[in-house]
Structure formats: C-alpha cells, structure tokens
Amino acid sequence: MSGDYGEAMCTGWCEDRCTSRGRRGGRGADLCSWLCLLLLFADLWGKTSSQCPESCHCAWDTATVQCSDAGLREIPEGIPPETVSLHLERNYIRNIPESAFRDLVHLQDLDLSHNRIDSLASGALRHLGPELRLLDLSHNQLRQASREEFGSTRAKTRLYHNPWHCDCILQELMETLNLEPETVNGIICESSVRGVGEGSRWDDPGSQGEHAGQPLVKLLDSGVNFCSMQRKTTDVAMLVTMFIWFFMVIVYVVYYVRQNQAEARRHLEYLKSLPSPHKTPTETDTLSTGF
Length: 291
Description:
The chain is of the alpha/beta class. The protein is built from 7 helices and 11 strands. The strands form 3 sheets. A 7-stranded mixed β-sheet has the order 1-2-3-5-7-8-10, covered by helices on one side.
C-alpha cells in the first residue's frame, strides 16, 4: 500500500469515526482524536523510514528510484526494498558487487546502461527476483561474463555495445539469457578465442581473433562453435605438452646411460693403472726349500 493511499484511508476513517463520536460528546471524541493522531504519525513514520538514497529521486506512488546522471561511481546504498523500477543509467559505475540487489525482491526494471561496468561479481545478479522484466547492461565495458553471474534470471536482457571477447563461456551465456530481439545484433565480438593454428591459447584475450568485429548471434547461426574450437585448442596444447615431456624423458635416459658408461670407463682405466702384484725372492726361496 502506497503512502498517499494509506494516508487517505487513515484520514477518511478518522473523519467518519470522530464525527460520529463528536456528536455523542464526552471522552469518546477525545480518545478518537488521539487515536487518529497516532495513526497519522505511524503513516508518516512509514514514509520516512524508507529513505531515498542520496543523489536519487524517489517516486513513492510508483515505487521508482531515479538515479540517472547522478555522477555515481558505485551502486548506492539504502535503496528501498519495495522498489519496482531502478534507474542507474549514465553514471560512472565500474563494477557490481554480489550484494548490490540482495533486498530488491520486487524489482521489475533495472537500467544500468551507459556506465563503465567492466566486471560483475560472482552471482552479482543472482538475487534479482522472478518479477524482473528488463535488465539493461548496454553501453558498458563488459568483456566477459558467465552464467554464474546472471543466475537464473529470465528478464529481457540488453547486452549490446560492449567490447565482448567471444569464447565458449560467452556462448553458453547467450544460449541461457532471454536476449532482447531488437538489440541482439548489437552484441559484437571485439575479439574472439583463437582457433587451432591461430596462436597459443595463453595469448592475451585482448588480441583479436578470426571473428573479431562480427555479431555473435550471426556467428552462432552460421555454425561457429566456440566451445568445440576451444576444446580443439586444448587438445593440441595437451599433445604438445605430452610430446615435450616424452622428449625430456628420452634425453634424460640417454644422458644417464652415457654418464654411466663414462663412469665405467674411468673405473676400468683406474684399475688398469694399478701396479700388478709381484712375488719377492724371499718367498721363492722359502717355497723351494720346502720342496
């Protein structure tokens, strides 16, 4: 129940009851007046208890919080939990923490467009309730995002005009979200995962790939599969790693054998260098006498 409706209802009830009490006179009229004052105070307290965030404008009758063009650098605190529409567009917000919208279970429209958002905390949008109808993240600096960050939201989502790096994770996200059809072609790959033969899988994701500059949806419709491409790249990397490991084992075995041969050769030469034992004349005479 909105504040204006509650105040009108409270005032009407007081007028009806106190008028009838006033006709009778006595303590009933005084008690009724005090009761009406308490009700009005409670209604005013309910209005002031939900404070509007600083630099924002709140329309209580529509449960709308307007924070557009407010110079904000982070999600404001103290957003009323009964908020239905939240406008945070055209600010300087860079990231969305996990607990930003935890208490906004009635939110239906969330506009975060035209900011500088380049990262979403894990589960940042997970707490948005099933009533959410529109999620606008267009015109930001998002390069990568995953399903864990969006949770299970089924809201119509806008993601165009972001410098996306197209890979398997983004492909899986696109297949999960309810993208707005009118803006889906605006999701452009500024860079993409490298295929087999295009370079190392450890290259900087900022380096452009084969599909840079093309709409992601059209690439997927044409049969491009970033997940299989990434798996092929991983398989090649594993084969190269195994080959290097096998080569190192062979080199070690050859080195070990040669070292042993060298040691054996040195030992043999040492034995040869030792003087051979000779019998002394005294020993020979003693043996002759004995015979």
